[in-house]
Amino acid sequence: MSKNTSSSAFRKIDVDQYNEDNFKEEEGDGGTAGPDENEIITLLGQGKNVEALISVLKSAPLGCKNQQVKDNALNLTLKVLLSIKSNQIEDAVAKLDRDLVDVLMKYIYRGFEIPSEGSSGHLLLWHEKVYNVGGVGSIVRVLSDSKQA
Amino acid sequence: MTETHSFGVSPITCHAWNKDRTQLALSPNNNEVHIYQRSSNGWKLLDILNQHDLRVMGIDWAPNTNRIVTCAVDRNAYVWTQGDDGKWKPTLVLLRINRAATCVKWSPLENKFAVGSGARLISVCYFEEENDWWVSKHIKRPLRSTVTALDWHPNNLLLVAGSADYKVRVFSAYVKDIEEAPQPGPWGTKSSLGTALAEFPNSPNGGGWVHSVAFSQCGNKVCWIGHDSSVCVADASKGNTVTRLRTEHLPFLSCIWVGPNSIVAAGHSCSPMLYALDDNGQLYFASKLDNTQRKEAGGLSAMRKFQSLDRQARIETTDTALDSIHQNAITCVRKLREDKFSTSGLDGQLVIWDLKTLENSIAGLKIV
């Protein structure tokens, strides 16, 4: 007879692994090398911060499996976000199409994970402006999309 | 205008109407299905169907043959027929699944029904005269996760299924034992049961369980909604092109077609929204259908404000009412008549919406 124990170890057994056609995460395209750092730095140097933002978001390696590439893109995107002044944020968000707004939201949340001096306050401003455009749907997609920043 | 009916405090899992819309079957978030008769002074409970052991997940009422099919987490489905005494008698259907059944739909001709399940398959069931029971055939490939939603094509031979593997698929559900072979249509020519005719990912960004799927009346278009707050339509007559709309709302849970080009979607935002297709086949947001203003409990008087500041050190009162009729997520949307639909949700309410009067009361609203 089976004994009634308080052990819950059996819950950790992955019974689905013996199933032949398991759900697997789709292989990402992998080809995206991420944004071109020199180009973005040049744009920032010329004061074209909004162009730099659009460029960095368009080439975001969301589907990439290489964590190093993703981290580089994250750092670069944060650099762009933090270089745009508070009073320019609204105009910058207005220049983005809806897909890029969603990408931007993903980077804002990732940015909260690695705070630096004064970054979180600035990102909260970004969050407010992006939320005004993208609504809660944009936040939902940060959570639900498997291609994350 | 809109009618609101309350069925207690417990959530309504799902609901279904009989043919003349005088009776209603709903499940109060447990193993029971309640049958209500509509009368001049409210709803009269006629019968309680309590054959299931666990929570009921799906109910569908076949209008012409007057049979109810229910499915539940206990992995069973029952077909209920009404006896001469008006009581409902269950017949067990052998689904042969090892996970919960999640959704069920009668085919338009009512000779088959399909059950989706957590066992990553769809059971297509039909009645076998010889043995006097319901038998099921499985559609397995290429489903990779729980089937969350189903809908039948008007031709009785195709199924669309939404799944937790973020995909929507169109299958052939032709059972050669009981029906004529299908004619080739826009969805494809292959006919054997279980052939996947089309597959659409919910989002190019990956993610978003599919919560609900629906074939349009003509059968050439499929609409679905996902957990990434999106509404999507695929059109077979235009080479399976997909138009997607990522909305700014909370995710939707249920959708139906209310016109050749109009979709009503409702979900966690507690208000049904109307979406439509323009002449180029692109989706656009048409209107929010619930424009109820929030009832101020006793008005926001200065006295109340200072009282609240004094007691709780904040200005807001404890009023948590939402500015919509439904006070919690809408989980089920059903077509009632050509110009009416009903919604039920976690707040235990059932609301009947009249599109004709909504068209008149909301400026610029047109059902296309």
Automatic annotation (TrEMBL), chain A:
Task: Provide the residue span(s) of the region labelled Disordered.
Answer: 1-37
Recorded hits in InterPro entries, A to Z, give: ARPC5 (IPR006789), ARPC5_sf (IPR036743)
UniProt key word Transmembrane helix: no
Biased composition of type Acidic residues is found at: 17-29
Its function, per the record, reads: Functions as component of the Arp2/3 complex which is involved in regulation of actin polymerization and together with an activating nucleation-promoting factor (NPF) mediates the formation of branched actin networks. Arp2/3 complex plays a critical role in the control of cell morphogenesis via the modulation of cell polarity development.
PANTHER family per the UniProt record, alphabetical: ARP2/3 COMPLEX 16 KD SUBUNIT P16-ARC (PTHR12644)
Protein's name according to its UniProt entry: Actin-related protein 2/3 complex subunit 5
Among Pfam families, the record links this protein to: P16-Arc (PF04699)
Answer whether the UniProt record assigns the keyword Cytoplasm to this protein.
yes
**Lineage start:** Eukaryota, Metazoa, Ecdysozoa, Arthropoda, Hexapoda
Spell out the family assignment given in the record's similarity comment. Answer: Belongs to the ARPC5 family.
Q: Where in the cell is it found?
A: Cytoplasm, Cytoskeleton
**What Gene3D superfamilies has UniProt attached to this entry?**
Actin-related protein 2/3 complex subunit 5
* Listed GO CC annotations: Arp2/3 protein complex
Recorded source organism is Neodiprion lecontei
Tell me the Gene Ontology biological-process terms attached to this UniProt entry: Arp2/3 complex-mediated actin nucleation; regulation of actin filament polymerization
Q: Which UniProt keywords apply?
A: Cytoplasm, Cytoskeleton
From TrEMBL, chain B:
In this chain the WD repeats are located at 49-80
Function as written in the Swiss-Prot or TrEMBL entry: Functions as component of the Arp2/3 complex which is involved in regulation of actin polymerization and together with an activating nucleation-promoting factor (NPF) mediates the formation of branched actin networks.
Natural source organism = Neodiprion lecontei
Q: What UniProt keywords apply to this chain's record, in alphabetical order? A: Actin-binding, Cytoplasm, Cytoskeleton, Nucleus, Repeat, WD repeat
Whether Cell division counts among this entry's keywords is: no
Family to which this protein belongs: Belongs to the WD repeat ARPC1 family.
- Taxonomic lineage of this organism? Eukaryota, Metazoa, Ecdysozoa, Arthropoda, Hexapoda
Q: Name one GO molecular function term.
A: actin filament binding
Stored InterPro entries: ARPC1, WD40/YVTN_repeat-like_dom_sf, WD40_repeat_dom_sf, WD40_rpt
Q: Which GO terms describe its cellular component?
A: Arp2/3 protein complex; nucleus
- The molecule here is called Actin-related protein 2/3 complex subunit
Record GO biological process: Arp2/3 complex-mediated actin nucleation
